[in-house]
Amino acid sequence: MSKTLPFSQVFAIGLMLFAMFLGAGNVIFAPMVGQEAGTNVWIAMGGFLITGVGLVLLAIIALTRGGGTVEKLAGRVHPTFAVVFSILLFLTLGPIYVIPRTTSVVFEIGINPLITNGSNIQWFLLVFSISFIALTVWLSWNTTKFIDHLGKIITPIFGILLIVLVVKSIFTPMGAIREPQDNYLSDVFMKGFTQGYYTMDVLAAFVFGGIFIKSISTLGVTSEKEVSKLFIKAGVITIIGLVALQLSMAWIGASSVDAIGYQENGGAVLAQSAKALFGDIGIYLIGFIIFLTGITTNVACLAAVSEYFERIVPSVSYKKWLLIFSAFSIVFTNFGLNAVLNMASPVLLLLYPLAIALIVLIFTNNLFKGRQSVYIGTMIGVGIVAILDALKDAGIGQEALNNLFGFIPLFENGAGWITTGIIGFAISLFIAKTRNEPVSIINMAGQEVKKVS
Fold it and tell me: Mind telling me which residue stretches traverse the membrane in this protein (predicted)?
């Protein structure tokens, strides 16, 4: 008989899942949306919450239906696609983006406001990044429950601090919400939609989701149907927490301009807002908490990417991969937070549409009976425009590409892949039915049933 868990334990599981996504890096984007969108902030945040929060739950559920790992899910398209997509995903999660971003955010919020000599800031960043990432490697060296226990302590402390920060900003506002900046005067919802990519939580769900699924299987819930129900309940708790977090961060950003002016990035917005609200003690408090959450994020990501590459290249050990990826992380971190965000932006504009398309396809699998051609055709349609969006974001032929492909609906807003993905889906479905391809149905328990159509 399957075990039914009390609400208190379900709530605790939801908090654990929330802790997996709560990190120093994903709280810096909503404040910038708040500052730049101004009075349009809530429209922008509507789009932001779809890609930055709502799709997280769908991604994890899709993972359970798609085989439990990102490799199996992406393998429905093609084995080669699965390898390329997974490698790009894990590298972005590790040394290319998340680890440098997290380390830079910790420096930006916890260290930079305390530096009086701005001319030496690059040396401070170098010393800090080497020390911080060395600590990450040390904590990642052996698999223990230290980080799990630390996360259970950090999450409520971080949550309480943010609640105090937000309540203070509501009862003693830093200023009025300003008019939107130029880039938020039009297409506000779609701008927020693409900004949600940068939290990277949907992509992280593909990596962390399988770990969570395995962890709840040890709680005595044996029925796959009950496991799915438990996972959804915990996911709802997580989503509520993430929505509250991001809306709070957007409010702080939107109301901060009068007190701190316009800042270059969300880390500076958060740090200067804490100082404006609480004085110097605000810098120390938020710096300490961001430091701890940054460590847990870095350890989780460095361990995940190293374990993955040990699986695909077993001749290189896990510990050697730790050292390799930590070295790359230090290099990328020292370009600075703004440069890290700019360098990773094209990669995210490529990966996010592909990830969203995979989620949609796995949920609609039974409608097209899981025919592989539909997976391939849809991903080609999405991928072509996603590549063009990545090129535009990298500053390669932006005007020429807009002129050449501007006829595609939403192309200039970075969402033209939706149109071409639907076209690819329709064409490939017609071809698959014409060729009488084998079908693959996913039953209620998430199990795949293959047969010849």
Answer: 7-29, 41-61, 81-100, 120-141, 153-177, 197-219, 231-252, 281-309, 321-341, 347-368, 375-394, 414-432
